[in-house]
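Hi R.,

Here's the chain you asked about this morning:
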Amino acid sequence: MAQYFQIHPVDPQPRLIKRAVDIVRAGGVVVYPTDSSYALGCHIGDKEAMERIRRIRRVDKDHNFTLVCRDLSQVALYARVGNADYRILKAHTPGAYTFILPATREVPRRLQNPRRKTIGLRIPDHAIVRALLTELNEPLMSSTLILPGEKLPLSDPEEIRAKLEHQVDLVIDGGNCGLEPTTVVVLESGQPRIARAGKGDITPFSFA
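And the predicted structure, written out as tokens:
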């Protein structure tokens, strides 16, 4: 049965953050809030935890996971970032964007797009995520919490607990989250391209 932590969305309790990170490091799958919606997360190197997330969402082996990063220096470790890309990232992070960039060798091959060798990365603007990533000191491998047959992610922590308490190791209650996914921006070709319009404002990219 999953543990359930109520963590303050603005001033996260360090004791609970540390316990949550211990669960991730031990191979756990956690539900956590972001600035767009709730997400499923696990350790970047844990293949079994990744397979558990796939089973929860009922997605195939080609499902694209996202690396949720603490800051730009962490992004640069896992993606090849040119000068123009860096300026775009700096202007729009933290925020509700997922950026698709060429992956470096630090990214396990199972996480890369098999054809393009790219990876999705994002830096959420949410205090709980920042605290988790600071304590963990590496990215979370992540996927939006959309259950099979649903079009929108779950947003009520109590409902999440009821539906997933036997499938995940921890549910972090950070209050109700939104239902709008991130805006996905492809940067692999040197020019930004909107792959999906979402919560992040697309106006800055409209004339790129």
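Residues 3-205 form a domain with the DHBP synthase fold (CATH 3.90.870.10).

Let me know if you need anything else.
M.
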